[in-house]
Amino acid sequence: MGRSLARGFTLLEMIVALVILGLLWGISSVAFWSLAPSPSMEARARLIRARTEAIRSGRSVAVQMTDSQSSVMLFPDGQAIGIGIDPLSGVPDSVHWPP
Predict the structure, then answer these.
(1) pTM here?
(2) Whether the Cβ atoms of residue 24 and residue 47 lie closer than 8 Å to each other
(3) At CB < 8 A and 24+ separation, what contacts does 13-19 make?
(4) Helix locations, 7-96, DSSP H
(5) What is the pLDDT of residues 35-91, one digit of tens each?
(6) Backbone φ and ψ of 91, nearest 5°
(7) What are phi and psi of 41, to 5 degrees?
(8) What pLDDT does residue 3 have?
(9) What is the CB neighbour count within 10 angstroms for residue 84?
């Protein structure tokens, strides 16, 4: 009396595999979204690029902040005027940021 050899996966094996894949997908998606830059980091990067442009071009550059109605004026000497902006470095002041 021979035993027949069954090929394939059982229902239990498939469910376990799907649960493991679901857990891995959930953990990886949380990790992936945590790598995305925050809006405040994007605003800081825009200000740094604008300050660099003002210094390189020798002209004043105005930046309109997208997350608020405030604007920042950056001057060719690297200084800045705006709410929540350090006037000497032209980057957001940690005490007043975001505006």
Answers:
(1) 0.54
(2) no
(3) none
(4) 11-34, 39-57
(5) 777 777 787 888 888 888 999 999 999 888 776 677 888 898 888 888 777 777 776
(6) -110, 160
(7) -70, -35
(8) 67
(9) 16
CA 51 to chain centre: 20
In angstroms, the CA 19 to CA 15 distance is: 6
Neighbours of 82 (CB within 10 A): 21
Q: How is residue 42 written in tokens?
A: 């994007």
Structure tokens at 95: 């005490």
Q: What amino acid is encoded at 50 in this protein?
A: A
- Assign 54 to helix, strand or coil: helix
Peptide bond into 76 cis (omega under 30): no
CB 44, CB 80: distance < 8 Å: no
